[in-house]
Amino acid sequence: MRDVAIVAFAQSDHLRRTDELSEVEMLMPVLHRVLDTTGLRAGDIGFTCSGSTDYLAGRAFSFTMALDGVGAYPPISESHVEMDGAWALYEAWVKILTGEADTALVYAYGKSSSGEVRDVLTRQLDPYYVGPLWPDSVALAALQAQALIDAGETDETALAAIAARSRAAAVDNPHAQLKGPVPAGEYVVRPLRTGDCPPVGDGAAAVILAAGDTARALCPRPAWIRGIDHRIEAHSLGVRELTRSPSTRLAAERAGAFERPVDTAELHAPFTSQEVVLRKALGLDDSVTVNPSGGALAANPVMAAGLIRLGEAAARIHRGESDRALAHATSGPCLQQNLVAVLEGESAHA
Amino acid sequence: MPDILSAPLVVAFPFTRSLGPVQSAFLTGLRERTVLGVRTGDGKVLVPPVEYDPVTAQEIRELTEVAATGTVTTWAWNPAPRPGQPLDTPFAWVLVRLDGADTALLHAVAAPGPEAVRTGMRVRIRWASERTGAITDIACFEPYDAEAGRPAPHSGEFTDPVHGIVTPARLDYRYTPGRAQSAYLGALSERRTVGERCPSCDKVYVPPRGACPTCGVATAEQVEVGPRGTVTTYCIVNIKAAHTANLDIEVPYVYAHIALDGADLALHARIGQIPYDQVRMGLRVEPVWTEGGRHPDHYRPTGEPDADYDAYKELL
Q1: CB pairs below 8 Å between A and B: how many?
Q2: Which residues of A86-97 are buried (b: 16+ CB within 10 A; e: fewer)?
Q3: Distance from A227 to chain B by nearest Cα, in Å?
Q4: Inter-chain CB proximity B79 and A187 less than 8 Å
Q5: Any chain A CB within 8 A of the CB of B177?
Q6: Confidence band (pLDDT; 50, 70, 90) for B245?
Q7: Do the Cβ atoms of A336 and A330 come closer than 8 Å?
Q8: B136, A67: Cβ pair inside 8 Å?
Q9: Which of A107, A154, A175, B155 measures 20 to 30 Å from A72, CA to CA?
Q10: E strand or H helix at B73, and its extent?
């Protein structure tokens, strides 16, 4: 099998509102930065794949407008997932593994400021039994948080500490939307307070993947993808044991996460309580640096936040701050779908 | 730079969905104040029921009646209900395992405050006074201390079963078109058409979106194009549009791609004031504005000689 690496990563500053920018205007500087990092031009890219959702924009086929930013003429090899860009990265990784491309540009973006993201996300729920009740994203996360508290796995103080640690870590992240001390705040949906919930904001991210020697030529220390897998839970929330994430566990096993310890984990946990579930599923102890970027509690551009976890993990390897990192992305309510990737620097595996 | 435009954008849709046999039985049952579950291959009762076993993926059809009473398995207090949610006063979201069921149903509990709700509390269904065969036939749950009921077989057959549901949805947005399109719309309000030139390939794009789709670079230099232009290609529309904005347009009419002078991308618009069968490639046209219109109503012939094919062939 071919070796594939993340060779470059860029992201926008994540902001509460970006009224002055269309999606493509927000995205384009990020695309230029990630291309400049490698010296590649848009026309050099073998495959382009993006993640976004029409429901954030309120417009059909909204991703086609963003395509202007990648130079889609003359025709390019391109695909789109109506999901977080982490799943677009998975598709691009498969494309490179098949030998149909040597390089891939993966990008994702979301402007949550256009609508009410708590209401928008209800439209991804079962439309027969759940959607008509309009349970918003915070409400569903709060049910999971209470289940964890009832099971004795966490409490409100421990959840507040997760928020505080994440936002303290984000002080070193120039792109983060929320950083430094943030009050726990009032209950949004009890037991979750403002501080347990991600900020609502706009942002974009992009990575470049490359195979083998191309990756070595483009990046001094490529972040080799040793494995990726993604799994989904049963559709109905009431069928699941909400305090556990067997899909994350299985994806991590299949991605090879448990073959050797990781030093870094970028977890896509928009809510503090979800970090508790993920740490348990992934068997992470205090020796692992979790979310040094601040994670989704510091910046949560919907559809890009999962891809950013892969990008942040890769960037730590590029900088020599990590030898073996785990990146996780989620989609859907209460950690419905989970993707795990294992990334390594060259020397770690020599 | 003009002010950034923004406008309300409402997306509303009454989604009509058909039901399979199990969903039909469950939702019809709710209309009749009867809660049905489905039995899986290993004997578990799923409420709400599904048509395929979540473990084995086998089709499952064996229905069972469960009680209208149950136990809260987890909950969350919602101090500020949002539009469309089951209650408009503060309530608890809950997962409820109905007596006789092995899985939990998502719904709401009416309670005076969070101190009145706990995991393990006993509740019963409060039925909606008007029921149509939908999950909202359960108005909510309410606290109820009583013994657990037992499941009983049920044929799942009702007179006049529900075969479909309509799930209305409405999402409210505030649309902001960004810098480039704001400038374009601002110019249109002065009856001017403005494109943007790509700094790399020199082409002028209209309407501008802030990016050159060929080079993938930002465009910023504004260029006024038109008002006259050339028909590059067209079609003849023979079916009257149902859309109310077009009701006064008689068929057949011509819809065309028009390369405005100075633009490197053709716009599309209706051609008027010329018989439909006399429109041709190369026809020179100009915009016609109506009082209060936000864009040209249509384009009409200028009377100039037709443009040479070579002048517009790159824009086809």
Answers
A1: 191
A2: bbbbbbbbebbe
A3: 26
A4: yes
A5: yes
A6: low
A7: yes
A8: no
A9: A175
A10: strand B69-78
